[in-house]
Amino acid sequence: MRYLTVIILAAAMLAGCQQTDTAEQAGTSSSPPPATLQTATVTPATPSSAASLTPEEPFLYIEQMKILGGNGQVVQVKSNTDIDQASLESALKKSLQISNPQTAFSYTMEWESPRFVQIRLQMDEDTAFSGTFNLDEANTADGRSYASTEQPYRNTVVVRSLTDQGSIHFKGIVSGTERMLPVWKTGWVKTVDNQQLTGPSFLFYGDEEHHLVQALTGRELTIPSFPREEGAYGNDYGYHEMYSDRFYPGYTYMVSGNKTLYRVDLKDFSRKKLHVFDKPVYGMSSSPDGTRIAVLYAHNEYIGPGADLLILDQKGNKLLSRENAAFLSHSDGFLFVYPLAWEDNSILILPADNDESNPLGKIRFDTGSGASKVLPDERITEQVKEDIWKHERQQDYYLLSTLQWSRDGRFAAYMSGTGTILLYDKNERTIAFVAAGVLLGWMPDGTLAWADVGGHAYTF
């Protein structure tokens, strides 16, 4: 059972995130009582203090738990060899970064053995708060490092408050101004261009209803979820409706069950069927003038990387089709959303794999001429690549594709491999922690926006 737990924990840390669970505490601390602390993962037995004949690689096993009754959270750190306690305590203190320095936050460290420490976190669980620290600079008692070149995030811990309330945060990076809107917890937040309003809106998907929130005013439109389509295709992101990235005066478009395209009336929420696809839909977008709907759908029945393109008019008539118009590497059988968008009424931005020749992973497709070319970003210079990759300790082009630049081109927010939002200052060549959350981008008023929805959420 110990080895099974190690595999589970290693996989979680490779993904760059720590899951907060509930279960029975292992350990001898007298405060709080053992019965109040629980975790869903079986705790490995405390390693023997006897020296191994063949020393194995130093490894930290990290588990996060919440204490029932609202008494905070605990991070348990265990090692397969004795820990240099001073180096671990120093590593935590030096690397700790929090989203809001004004929020009360503290921690204590309880050493249960030379190989086991419990880090007790105290924070306001009713307020959106997050933080992170990294234990790479910790050493074993005999001076070996716990850092790993192959797994750069395995000793990174991300913590967040356990509030039941979702929220959108707006922060002036230079001015320091902050604003918050209460929203809903979800697994999918979609940025929507609402042509009746100034600035973007955000669609928070739900099982029974969806909520469209205008960023600058906080105004909200509740959209009921329709019954599941007969013969609907299952997917791997959890919602059977896929709305367009644009809403128009009184209407928008929606794909139901990854199968059927509808025009939706935003006043009485009636639907008009426009087209039924014979293979699962991967993604859709409607043009700025609302007269064209582009849909990517599976090229074959295996639900593989290739996607065919179909462009329809507002009545459902076919305007253009193209086989294998997009390709995103993934195993057959997994149905996720492919991001696509109209640049204007004739140019489509199609998704592609990220690599050296296409860091953004975007193809600019002219629906009139049929010409395609890679969409460049001149702001991603060699200096930017060097700074981002040095900080992340890996050469990953996907990281570059998540860069969202401020209007003046000085700052770029991006999603780190740890699952946190970081801010890159191009002038100072520094990178700072913003928050754990979902990056939404820069607003017309110059603030940076992100959502705290309780965990990971898709944004395509």
What does this entry look like structurally?
- The protein has 460 residues and is mainly beta.
- The protein is 9% helix and 38% strand.
- The chain has 4 helices and 33 strands.
- The chain has helices at 2-14, 85-95, 382-392, 397-401; strands at 20-21, 60-66, 73-79, 97-98, 105-113, 116-123, 130-134, 156-160, 166-171, 178-183, 189-194, 201-204, 209-214, 220-224, 241-243, 246-247, 251-256, 260-265, 271-276, 281-286, 292-298, 306-313, 318-327, 341-342, 347-351, 362-366, 372-374, 404-405, 411-415, 420-425, 430-436, 438-442, 448-452.
- It has a 5-stranded mixed beta sheet with strand order 1-2-3-6-5. A 5-stranded mixed beta sheet has the order 14-13-12-11-16, with no helix packed on it. A 4-stranded antiparallel beta sheet has the order 10-9-33-32, with no helix packed on it.
- Strand 22 (306-313) and strand 23 (318-327) form a beta hairpin.
Distance between the termini: 38 Å
Question: Share of helix among residues?
Answer: under 10%
Overall pLDDT confidence: 87
Largest β-sheet summary: 5 strands, mixed
Percent of residues in beta strands: 35-45%
Q: How many helical stretches?
A: 4
The general outline is globular
Indicate the radius of gyration in whole angstroms: 24 Å
Tell me the strand order in the biggest sheet.
Answer: 1-2-3-6-5
Structural class, judged by helices and strands?
A: mainly beta
- How many DSSP-defined strands? 33
> Which runs of at least 5 residues are low in confidence (pLDDT < 50)?
1-53
